[in-house]
Amino acid sequence: MESAKSVASERSSKVDLSRPLHVRTPLLESLPLSQIYGQRVYIKMDNVQPSGSFKIRGMGVLCQDAKRQGASKVVIASGGNAGMAVAYGARQLGMECVVVISDNVPHRMVDKLKLEGARVEVRGNSWDDADVRAREIVAQEGGYYCHPFDNPLIWTGNATMVAEMKEDLGDRVPAAIVASVGGGGLVCGLSEGMKVAGWADVPIVAVETRGADSFRASLRAGNQVTLPKITSIAAALAVRKVCTRILELYRERSIFSMVLSDRLAVDACNRFADDHRALVEPACGASLAAVYSNRVTEMRRQKKLDPSRPLVVIVCGGSAASRQQLEEWTKTVSSTGTVSPLDHSGID
């Protein structure tokens, strides 16, 4: 069997940079979520992207930019999903890839990254720690540095999912789009795409898990702040400081901030697996939990969201998700004690 590196080397001379590295994903009606919400709920299934998450949309654009600039190696610090996307993109484009992850990323991710041909290093317990090492590698060895969320090219790539949703929904305009927040790259991309689609007045419900809620912390402080540490198990959201652009967007458009517990996020992962036969990780479970826990239903009843319009939830995915890993996440949150079904923080 050919190694990922040998295949990448062969592909390097056959690259078509005009073709995106992501695929068009389905927008499906979810009957279980619709029943909870009281109106149609559509799920954007970016968990079926070739890298396992929406991240390939933005990171694919970055990898192609690196190739155009003549780079032979890309380097990234990642909570897992962005790293998988860059590793996949690098393999498709015939480039070397180095991924630095933090030690809270599931061990299974190391094997998956290596299978994509990436060199993997582990550093610290948050993305910020891993990023220090990634920048050191670029300084010492050279290569194209890929930020996982704070780059306009990434936002442009992430915006492509809105164009797909617009085509699928036709004349129907959503009441809101629900999406998870780590560093803010997904929300920035959604906002960009929604402006082009004529949905600039459609709210975004930005969901974080408690212990990785750097967006909420910044909103409360009135400026960009850095969390002292990450305590959430949602490794893909383990960013201590969001990008400044998402804070600007909060002032420019309608964005609701929502913070939920790890337990609600993991419970949503389990329920989604039963309802839709798909495995996602807690970072994605956070946005699903916004519906499963009735939080957005409350918003609809309070007329914060147009009750006559459908809801869209971004199923951002999760490269680390597996049956065994989901069982481990479930055991971890179960050991923290019993919580109310409405274990959450308020909406700003």
UniProtKB/TrEMBL annotation:
PROSITE patterns: DEHYDRATASE_SER_THR. It comes from the Eukaryota. SUPFAM superfamilies: Tryptophan synthase beta subunit-like PLP-dependent enzymes. It is an enzyme of class 4 (lyase). Keywords: Lyase, Pyridoxal phosphate. Its EC number is 4.3.1.17. It holds the Pfam family PALP. Residues 22-317 form the Tryptophan synthase beta chain-like PALP domain. It catalyses: L-serine = pyruvate + NH4(+). GO terms for molecular function: L-serine ammonia-lyase activity; pyridoxal phosphate binding; threonine deaminase activity. GO terms for biological process: isoleucine biosynthetic process; L-serine catabolic process; L-threonine catabolic process. Signal peptide: none annotated. Its cofactor is pyridoxal 5'-phosphate. Belongs to the serine/threonine dehydratase family. This is L-serine ammonia-lyase. The lineage of its organism: Eukaryota, Metazoa, Ecdysozoa, Arthropoda, Chelicerata.
